[in-house]
Fold this protein.
Amino acid sequence: MRIMLTVLLLALQGLDVALHIATDQFEPIRFVSNLIAAGGAILILVAARQSRIVGLVTGASYFLLNLVFLAQNGMTNPGTGALRVPLFGFVFFSVLLLVLCVMRAMKTEE
């Protein structure tokens, strides 16, 4: 289960990056947040004892970078005028998967 959650999180981050590249909307701050989430997921998988702190730092960093992106670029996509629903979805599911990764890692350490 731990590996599956990690793979899902890595796939989600990869999909986010791929969509931005495919739609010519690459955003460096969001790319860095994707790298942080992916790296944190891998660290949680291989270092279960430190999963709580790694998860906290990873989740907070990922979330804060996406908040900075929203503060700089707004809640709507300037190209379409639409609310950034995909961003909210990616952030929600990424943080959820990080929490689940930490919970499974902590359970493994019991």
